[in-house]
Design goal:
The chain is an alpha+beta fold. The protein is 42% helix and 33% strand. The chain has one domain (2-68). It contains two helices and three strands; from the N terminus they run αβββα. 0% of the residues are buried.
């Protein structure tokens, strides 16, 4: 029961103003998906490389997505 209460408390802290970025780290390419607070995928998956240029590409794509919402 204690875990159930903690789970409900954590869920209540995330509201509609949050975007969740999930990243799958690979050897060469990384894949990111962006979801809203309810788990609905927003946009397409983002493929980027594991270097500073890939990270900058990911950040630019996230900022572009935020500006279109």
């Amino acid at each position: 029961m204690h875990n159930n209460c903690n789970s409900k408390m954590r869920k209540s802290k995330i509201d509609n103003s949050y975007l969740i970025v999930g990243i799958d780290i690979g050897k060469i390419n990384q894949y990111a998906r962006i979801t809203d607070s309810e788990g609905n995928e927003i946009g397409k998956k983002i493929v980027f490389q594991r270097d500073i240029f890939g990270l900058n590409q990911l950040i630019m794509r996230i900022n572009t997505l935020i500006n279109t919402l």
